[in-house]
């Protein structure tokens, strides 16, 4: 092919000559990089002009799906990159733009799902060959930092994509597949991720404030230091997810599954975890002040040094939970199951433990000042503390040996 030639470069005579195949690959990669930086409406228009639109806008657009790429499209591509720094070494004749445009179209068909808003609905040409592996690897790397703000990516296959630092605020990712994708530092505020698959996805430091993750599958996802404040995670699956130091202030996690999840140091102030499943989750050092955990499954959970002041745990199951040194000041523990729970050093000042079951619980050094233990079950509890000051002990079942029997008590 003689359509392309290198400009004379006497100042750099040893510069390696680039053959046509390498040049096409290089220019295609750089074209994709340029397109990724465009606002998504312009991205879609260019993709449509490359003949990949599912519904042709006109008979002329339909004709563009053939091998005869229109001259104005080739001119458009040339204009886009005319002043690009990486073009300074090339003088391109009109013929070379045809194989470049075809290679670009091929790259977009193979990888558009990772880059372009209309990805899931693109119509690839028939009998399209596989993309050159080296080109595929290079193009995939270009997604990092892509601007897809407000993009329509519903049902898109983005599995394994590199979306590091990508801008996806307000994007529609309903039912999208983001399995094992890399979204570290991505901006997903107010994005719609309803029923999206995010299994084993990297979301470290991601901004998911106000995002809708209802029914999303985040099993094994890495959400370390992610910001999910105000996010909707109703019925979301977060089994085994790592949410260490994440922020979920006022997040809605109603009926969410957080079994075996890591929530060490997580901030869940005023979050709603009604009916959530948190069995064996680690919430050590977490801030759950004002949180709703009504009817939640907290069996075997770790809440060491956790802040649960003013939390509502009505009817929650905390069997075998570790609440060592936890702060439960003013918490509502009405009807809570604390069988065999460890409350060593816990602060239960003014806590409501009405009808709570503390059978075999460890209350060593626990502070129960002014707590309401009406009809609570204290059978076989372990405590060395004196009778708590100001506590309401009406009709308590079970008598700690270190406490003095009072009227209204009966032994279990």
UniProtKB/TrEMBL annotation:
It comes from the Bacteria. It holds the Pfam family Pentapeptide. SUPFAM superfamilies: Pentapeptide repeat-like. Transmembrane segments: none annotated. This is Pentapeptide repeat-containing protein. The lineage of its organism: Bacteria, Bacillati, Actinomycetota, Actinomycetes, Streptosporangiales.
């Amino acid at each position: 092919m003689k359509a392309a030639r290198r400009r004379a470069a006497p100042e750099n005579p040893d510069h390696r000559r680039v053959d046509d195949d390498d040049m096409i690959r290089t220019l295609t990669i750089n074209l994709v990089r340029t397109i990724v930086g465009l606002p998504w409406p312009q991205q879609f228009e260019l993709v449509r002009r490359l003949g990949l639109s599912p519904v042709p806008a006109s008979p002329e657009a339909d004709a563009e799906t053939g091998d005869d790429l229109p001259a104005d499209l080739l001119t458009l591509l040339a204009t886009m990159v005319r002043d690009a720094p990486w073009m300074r070494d090339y003088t391109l004749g009109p013929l070379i733009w045809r194989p470049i445009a075809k290679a670009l179209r091929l790259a977009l068909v193979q990888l558009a799902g990772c880059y372009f808003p209309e990805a899931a609905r693109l119509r690839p040409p028939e009998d399209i060959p596989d993309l050159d592996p080296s080109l595929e690897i290079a193009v995939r790397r270009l997604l990092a930092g892509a601007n897809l703000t407000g993009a329509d990516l519903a049902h898109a296959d983005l599995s394994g994509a590199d979306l590091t630092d990508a801008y996806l605020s307000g994007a529609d990712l309903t039912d999208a597949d983001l399995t094992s994708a890399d979204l570290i530092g991505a901006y997903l505020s107010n994005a719609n991720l309803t029923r999206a698959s995010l299994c084993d996805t990297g979301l470290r430091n991601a901004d998911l404030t106000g995002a809708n993750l209802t029914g999303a599958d985040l099993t094994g996802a890495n959400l370390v230091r992610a910001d999910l404040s105000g996010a909707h995670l109703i019925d979301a699956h977060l089994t085994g997810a790592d949410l260490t130091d994440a922020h979920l202030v006022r997040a809605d996690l109603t009926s969410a599954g957080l079994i075996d999840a890591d929530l060490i140091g997580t901030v869940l102030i005023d979050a709603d975890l009604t009916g959530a499943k948190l069995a064996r989750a680690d919430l050590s050092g977490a801030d759950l002040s004002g949180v709703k955990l009504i009817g939640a499954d907290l069996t075997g959970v770790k809440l060491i040094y956790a802040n649960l002041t003013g939390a509502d745990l009505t009817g929650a199951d905390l069997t075998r939970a570790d609440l060592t040194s936890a702060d439960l000041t003013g918490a509502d523990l009405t009807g809570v199951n604390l069988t065999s729970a460890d409350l060593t050093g816990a602060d239960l000042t003014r806590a409501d433990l009405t009808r709570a079951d503390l059978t075999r619980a460890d209350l060593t050094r626990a502070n129960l000042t002014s707590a309401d233990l009406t009809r609570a079950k204290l059978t076989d509890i372990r405590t060395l503390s004196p009778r708590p000051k100001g506590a309401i002990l009406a009709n308590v079942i079970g008598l700690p040996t270190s406490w003095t029997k009072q009227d209204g008590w009966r032994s279990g």
